[in-house]
Amino acid sequence: MGSLHKPNLPIIELNTKQSNPTSSSWVTKCVEVTRALEEYGCFIATYDGVSRELHDAIFLASQELFDLPTEVKVLNTSDTPSHGYVGQIPVVPLYEGLGIEDSTTTHGVERFTKLMWPSGNDSFSERVLMYTKAVSELDQIVMRMVAKSYGIENHYEPILGSTTYLLKLIKYISPQGNDRKMGIVPHTDKSFMSILHQDEVNGLEIMTKDGEWIEVVPSPSSFIVMAGDACMAWTNGKIEPSCHRVMMQGNTDRYSLGLFTFIRDLKVETPQELVDENHPQQYDAFDHYKYLHYHAIDGLKLKFPLKSYCGI
Q1: DSSP line for the chain
Q2: Under CATH, to which class is 22-264 assigned?
């Protein structure tokens, strides 16, 4: 009897120089990226845009942030559900997260930094901006490849112009022992796209379409590129978001980062090129931020919140 084959996520090498859409290697990568997203809802990108030094610096900055007193961290509020401080929740007691809205802009990062460190913290701001700019570039490479694969490049440009980036800095407190404890419950992201980056501690698990959990082992140059609910609507269901969770064990705290894209001032709408009689339109055009509010109030208990929000 052969050993059972355990599925692994596709690993795709992407780099900052990959911006020549006329080269044949670009076209091959487009197919590879899109196929991975269609099959798993995510893939692992090895990406050279974040150096080892920047990786170490941003995780050090993250630890410095979480070491602040709770009464400082809770000042991180937002009108958008889950975009500010989230912590001390009975269902997920190990989870704590802070959000930096408009995190690829100097204004967004400095607003957050001043809130946490009223007397300023330039090195924190600089590290965050360097990091978000590098990772947002990875997001744009992936999205251009998906748009190219589907022949909808002209529909991606307005979306790019309306994209805002939320950086979430996340800490999972170690459960102190070998029992596996829930770090975050299984969920799909409500974003357009998400790019997750883990430090050294395992924990992230992705569910395959067959219902198997795949553990994603951290590495400094690996980024988990993940479709969110809004991407599913935009691609008319061709790409479905992957369900994922975090399971914790052992005595080491776990730090991770997520760069999440949201569409502001433009409705998320399925391009007509992706609609035909075999693939009827599945979702009405919708306001991404209104969907986030809907999900926080009515959608949490639903298996397919987007379907009930704007499904056809």
Answers
A1: -PPPPPP---EEEE-TT---TTSHHHHHHHHHHHHHHHHHSEEEEEETTS-HHHHHHHHHHHHHHHTS-HHHHTT---SSTTSS-EEEETTEEEEEEEEETTTTSHHHHHHHHHHH-TT--HHHHHHHHHHHHHHHHHHHHHHHHHHHHHT-HHHHHHHHHTEEEEEEEEEE---SEEEEEEEEEEE--SSSEEEEEE-S---EEEE-TTS-EEE----TTEEEEEE-HHHHHHTTTSS-PPPEEEEEEESS-EEEEEEEEEE-SS-B---GGG-BTTB---B--B-HHHHHHHIIIIITT-SSHHHHHHB-
A2: mainly beta
Per-residue pLDDT of the chain (312 residues; tens, 9 = 90+): 444 556 789 999 998 876 667 777 888 999 999 999 999 999 999 999 999 999 999 999 999 999 999 999 999 999 999 999 999 898 899 999 999 999 999 999 999 999 999 999 999 999 999 999 999 999 999 999 999 999 999 999 999 999 999 999 999 999 988 899 999 999 999 999 999 999 999 999 999 999 999 999 999 899 999 999 999 999 999 999 999 999 999 999 999 999 999 999 999 999 999 999 999 999 999 999 999 999 999 877 788 899 999 999
